[in-house]
Specification:
The protein is an alpha+beta fold. The protein is built from three helices and eight strands, in the order H-E-H-E-E-E-E-H-E-E-E. It folds into two domains: about 60 residues, Nuclear Transport Factor 2, Chain: A; about 60 residues. Keywords: Signal.
């Protein structure tokens, strides 16, 4: 019985570590991007400094991300293998947000300091705002919808 439990434990550990490896990001050079992805990067990165490219599997599909700096703020884009722009995460100032979004983020922060706010855009529309928080040494992330309401399905 002990031997079977030991074998089961080993199998579970191997399975778990395999899942972790599958979800990992891989850094790429620009020359490794598929042509359709490169074309979208060219369009989206005009005037930007590109920090890095990564690829990963998300929901069973390979996606590519370009992390960049545009006019002093961060902008990350996620692109499907066929060149479709899936998502844009772009740093925004808290002051630029609608008052109801600012209020909702501060309420959800529950006393934590908001260190960065990003808009999440899909198919040309802002679908959420995400804020990075810091309370003591504890980092966190909160999210609200584009009108400040709680999201039905947090991203």
């Amino acid at each position: 019985m002990k031997r079977n439990m030991s074998a089961l434990t080993t199998a579970l550990l191997i399975s778990s570590s395999s899942l972790i490896v599958l979800g990992q990001e891989k850094t790429l050079n620009r020359s490794q991007l598929p042509p359709a992805v490169e074309k979208t990067v060219q369009t989206q990165s005009q005037g930007a400094t590109i920090k890095r490219f990564i690829t990963e599997r998300e929901n069973g599909k390979t996606v590519y991300e370009a992390e960049m700096i545009v006019k002093g703020h961060t902008k990350d884009i996620q692109i499907a293998k066929d060149g479709t722009l899936n998502e844009i995460e772009e740093e925004v100032s808290m002051d630029s947000l609608p008052l109801e979004v600012q209020t909702a983020l501060r309420t959800k922060a529950a006393g934590a300091v908001i260190t960065k706010v990003e808009s999440l855009t899909r198919q040309g529309s802002v679908v959420a705002y995400e804020a990075s928080t810091l309370k003591g040494s504890q980092r966190g992330e909160i999210q609200v919808g584009p009108t400040g309401k709680q999201l039905a399905h947090p991203e």
